[in-house]
Structures are given as C-alpha cells and as structure tokens.
Amino acid sequence: PVVNFPERTYSGFIGEINASGSYDADKDKLTFSWNIPAEIPVSSTTSEVIQFLAPLTETNQTYDFILTVSDGKTTQSRTIPITVVPYEPDLEVAEVISVSASDSYSTNQPYNIIDGNIGTMWSSKGEEQSLTLELKSPFIIHHIMIAFQPGQKSESYFDIYGSNDGENWESILVKAKSCAFSGGIHVFEFPISKAINEYKYLKIVGLGNSNDNWNYISEFRIFGYRHKNRADYEDLIVKLYPNPAREIVNIKIDNAEFNPDFIRILTLDGKVMYSDIVDPMIRDFQVPVNFTHGVYIVQMGMGNITMFTQKLVVFR
C-alpha cells in the first residue's frame, strides 16, 4: 500500500490518511480494510481515504492504524503509526461563572456544557438558538474545545461571538462545523486577529446539523490567558511589550538587581527558537519574533539558572 499520513497530529484535530496512491500491477480493483484503535472515531473503515478525530491526551501517544489492501487474490498490510500530541497544554482554562440559553429542551440544560461530563448536554431545536457563557474575568482566548452529541454521525454547524459587556458582540467564527463521524471533543482555533483580544463573554449560536435543525453541546472549554491588570504588569522585573507581538518584542529589564546574561525564546515543547547573550549595560532592547503564530516561552537568567519566565504570544 502507498499511504500518505501525518506522523504527528494534535489532540482534538481531524487528521487524514490517504491510501489512494495504492495500485495493483495487473490493474485489478483494490479493496481497503482498516483496523482502527478502539478509542479513535473514523469516517470509514473501507475507504481508500479516511479521516479520524485525534483523542485528547496528556502526553504524546502513538496509535497504530493497520491497512489491508486486497486485489481479490492476494493481500498486503501496512501499519501506520500516528503520534497524537497534546495541544498547547500550558494554556490556562477560563473559569465560567454562568451559562444561559435562549432555549433548552427538557433536562438538557445550559449548565451541562461545563459539568465535566460528556454524557450530559444542552440541546435546543431551531437555528439561531444560543448559549452565552460569562467568564470570571476578561480572557485572551486562543482556542475552544467543544463536544457535541455522544455517538453523533452528522456535522454540527455554529457561529461564535465574543463580547466584553454581554450586549455588543463581535463575530469570531462563522459557520464553523464539526466532523461528520463523531460528537467527541473538537478543537476550534480562534483566528489570529481575535486571539489577541480579551473577552468577558462568549456566545455560541447553533445552526443545526446536517440531518436536522437540532443543536447539541455536551462540553465547552475555553483556553488562553487570564487578563493581566496594570498592577500585575508593573510588578514584573522584566516587561515584554507588545504582547501579543507580531514582528518584534521590546524587552525592558525593570529591576536594578536583575542582571541576566542570557535570553532565550522556546516553543511550548522546549524547542529553542531564539538565544542570545544579554549585555549587562543594556536594560532595554528588542528581539525579532519572526516565528509562526503561537505561544512561546521567554526565559532570562544567569549561568544555568533561569530567573525569569513569561509567556509570549506571536501572531501574524
């Protein structure tokens, strides 16, 4: 079998394995059979191209997909190992203090989406039915995780809006959709232009699903950073600005007793993206951050000791 597949993918993302390049020397028609890890939902077990929803993991986990291809006379098998990586595990989870809905069906009430139990849900019939979540404090949101109806075999459609007063709303995700073969937890990233803003409220507007106009949400989680007030910022021994940054970040060492001799910027999984020596005579300087958009860690210290650490968001 000839197979194209991602060697690594993130938890909550949809991946694809493509065996359409497989061929038979005699040009016989081929059939495909997939042996799938038990905990991973897939779009098909007999197609040449399949999609899968990567499960949530706390550490890197490798799953073996086994493909058997037959021309009716002989068979060949191939094991396809795919490593599922936790998606940005260092992000904070927003605290939701209230959930309300425009409408709810029976015992499927709004609070069910934050009770930690994927077996309970909110449901409502009709397009434009909505859920509104109020956060404890303004929050810079990078992505959300949503679980839909357990056992679902249809696409769910929805919009996401953000607000700071619960009255004036700005559009964040438009006509977003789940996969068509699982209601399990999906990750939906905020656009870069929205992932630098603070929101106190989120609203999800249900647009039905590919079978009917019912809306189902089992779990809803919000990931990013808590709002940092000015007093917190002023207390920092090193100040990074702007943060989020686009091309450069300014670094101001604001404590006379802190004399670092190194600075480095790392990805969340520890890859060093930038490293340099700090001149003790310079207290205010710039660092280029021409990285892909995402979350990074800035470290500063002396010798082998890291004495300052702060998260840096880079957007494009």
Question: How do the strands and helices of this protein lay out in sequence?
Answer:
Blueprint: E1 8-10, E2 14-18, E3 31-35, E4 49-53, E5 61-70, E6 75-85, E7 92-93, E8 96-101, E9 122-125, E10 129-147, E11 156-163, E12 170-177, E13 186-189, E14 198-209, E15 214-217, E16 219-226, H1 230-235, E17 238-241, E18 248-253, E19 262-267, E20 272-277, E21 284-288, E22 294-302, E23 305-314
Parallel strand pairs: 1-6
Antiparallel strand pairs: 2-4, 3-5, 5-6, 7-16, 8-10, 9-15, 10-13, 10-14, 10-16, 11-12, 11-14, 17-18, 18-21, 19-20, 19-22, 22-23
List keywords for this structure.
single chain, 316 residues, eight-stranded antiparallel sheet, four-stranded mixed sheet, 1 helix, 2% helix, flat
Descriptive notes:
Strands 7, 8, 10, 11, 12, 13, 14 and 16 form an eight-stranded antiparallel sheet that branches. A four-stranded mixed sheet has the order 1-6-5-3, with no helix packed on it. The model has no long low-confidence stretch (mean pLDDT 92). Helices cover 2% and strands 51% of the residues. The chain is built from one helix and 23 strands. It is mainly β.
- How many helices? 1
Low-confidence stretches: none
Which percent band covers the strand fraction?
over 45%
Distance between the termini: 39 Å
Order of helices and strands: EEEEEEEEEEEEEEEEHEEEEEEE
Anisotropy-based shape: flat
Instruction: Output mean pLDDT.
Output: 92
Give the total of beta strands. 23
| Rg on CA atoms, Å | 24 Å
Largest sheet, in brief, is: 8 strands, antiparallel
Helical coverage, percent range: under 10%
Structural class: mainly beta
Assembly category: single chain
